[in-house]
Design goal:
Catalase HpII,  Chain A, domain 1, about 30% helix, about 15% strand
Length: about 500
């Protein structure tokens, strides 16, 4: 077999790989040494802009297999029959840290899945938590700024975080999850995943239900406590990446069971909370989990940058039989995620192998940076036209959307929806055991001790009031840990 030749990017074979062209063996380098400049210019551009959030991540390919029939709820082809398999790709990530940050930071974990279905790619872009810190997308950039770096010191700032959280009690549910040991998963394999948002499913009769997606780890939940997570940051900052790769290499393929919760339209009117509020869950007792299928990860990408770093997920990418909901945070992500990818990867990001639909794609988008396909060849780039045979399939016509109101206005996100304490209280009293509660308090106290500056006492007292409203014992334990004296009048006021 003929050996491969070393070539330039344009295909020209060359020999002088190690030595630059100079005037004499000690002289200056000549400008005409094109190969030197080509290599250095490419090297200078190896780092594309990192993701604004979810910068550090791990990924793997796998398969999704349907185990239970849910065709009564959806006509999506991915769920068309029991036993059907669909190739998929997943990217796990931390949220707030930069690309070089540690895998064991206290942070939510991204849980983004791309299903390569015959009706197009379906991206389910969620987290390892069923809720989030905010319920309106106008707050998103401001929230993320508090999780990044102080613009003056360029350091992470507990003061920024707790100031924002204390001024936004809607964040309590997610804050308590984050400050529990669930905020420091042992590995990506040992955590659940959630679509988090409310979505809709549509069946063959155009009947719609609302749905929550859950991915329950078959490996079991395993978390670091705060101390062990801190130690692992110094021992192996890439612990979760290494754990995922090693498991798949030894053929211990990680698995998750997909389950759904379903809510009928009539039930949305009687549900205690807004069913489209991302800071709330649907109690399992009221909306039982329904088995759907099994996701298995069985292939590590051959090239991390090609597949994991260039993977682009967008909640806007749904397929026939799966659609959106009035969830305000979801609505905000429909435009912002594809826009982020166009900025980071270029307008043709969906032509990259990891993002490319493996089935036939026909449209009239042309040109732009990094057009790596055939750019439509000689076919027309406009519609209607008299030359191509692309048809519009009426079977995919979307049904009309029923809206509750015809009045557009800026509505208070908390109007008739300002119960920020009941669900966090249920989480604390019912979902956590004694050790979980103890670790939660220790983690909160450890974090809040970092609050500093002239507003320190104001921020601490404001946040303590929220914790007292969640549970009087929780508030007392945190106050005690912070050395804050709480008199009976305060307790009566906040409870």
């Amino acid at each position: 077999m003929e050996k491969k030749k070393l070539t330039t990017a344009s295909g020209k074979p060359y020999f002088e790989f190690e030595n630059s062209m100079t005037v004499g063996d000690r002289g200056p380098i000549l400008l005409q040494d094109f190969l030197l400049h080509e290599d250095m210019a490419h090297f200078n551009r190896e780092r594309i802009p990192e993701r604004v959030v979810h910068a550090k991540g791990s990924g793997a390919f796998g398969t999704f297999t349907v185990t239970d029939d849910i065709t009564q709820y959806t006509r999506a082809k991915i769920f068309s029959k029991v036993g059907k398999q669909t190739k998929m790709f997943i990217r796990f990530s931390t949220v707030g840290g930069e690309k070089g940050s540690a895998d064991t930071e206290r942070d939510p974990r991204g849980f983004a899945i791309k299903f390569y279905t015959e009706d197009g790619n379906w991206d389910l872009v969620g987290n390892n938590t069923p809720v989030f810190f905010i319920k309106d997308p106008k707050k998103f950039s401001h929230f993320i700024h508090t999780q990044k770096r102080d613009p003056k010191t360029n350091c992470k700032s507990p003061t920024m975080m707790w100031d924002f959280w204390s001024l936004n009690p809607e964040s309590l549910h997610q804050v308590m999850i984050l400050m529990s040991d669930r905020g420091t998963p042992f590995s990506y394999r040992n955590m659940h995943g959630f679509g988090s948002h409310t979505f809709s499913l549509i069946n063959k009769d155009n009947e719609k239900v609302w749905v929550k997606f859950h991915f329950i780890t078959a490996q079991g939940i395993r978390n670091f406590n705060g101390q062990d997570a801190s130690e692992m940051r110094g021992i192996d900052p890439d612990h979760a990446q290494r754990d995922l790769v090693d498991a798949i290499v030894r053929r211990d393929f990680p698995k998750w069971n997909m389950k759904i919760q379903v809510m009928a339209q009539e039930q949305t009117k009687t549900f205690k909370w807004n069913p489209f509020d991302l800071t709330k869950v649907w109690p399992h007792g009221d909306f039982p989990m329904i088995d759907v299928g099994v996701m298995e990860l069985n292939e590590i990408p051959q090239n991390y940058f090609r597949d994991v770093e260039q993977a682009a997920f967008a909640p806007a990418h749904v397929v026939d039989g799966i659609s959106y909901s009035p969830d305000k945070m979801l609505q905000g992500r429909l435009l912002s995620y594809p826009d982020a990818h166009r900025y980071r990867l270029g307008v043709n990001y969906e032509l990259l192998p990891v993002n490319k639909c493996p089935y036939l794609v026909d449209n009239y988008q042309r040109d732009g940076h990094m057009q790596v396909g055939d750019n439509g060849g000689a076919a027309p780039n406009y519609r209607p036209n008299s030359f191509d045979d692309i048809i519009v399939d009426e079977n995919y016509k979307e049904q009309a959307m029923e809206l509750d109101s015809s009045i557009a206005d800026f509505y208070d996100r908390n109007k008739n929806d300002n119960d920020h304490y009941t669900q966090p209280g249920m989480l604390y009293r019912k979902a956590m055991n004694e050790q979980d509660r103890k670790n939660l308090v220790n983690n909160i106290v450890g974090s809040m001790r970092g609050i500093s500056g002239e507003k320190k006492d104001e921020i601490i007292n404001r946040q303590l009031c929220h914790f007292f409203r969640v549970d009087i014992q929780l508030g007392m334990a945190i106050a005690s840990g912070l050395g804050v004296a709480i008199d009976d009048k305060v307790k009566e006021h906040v409870h």
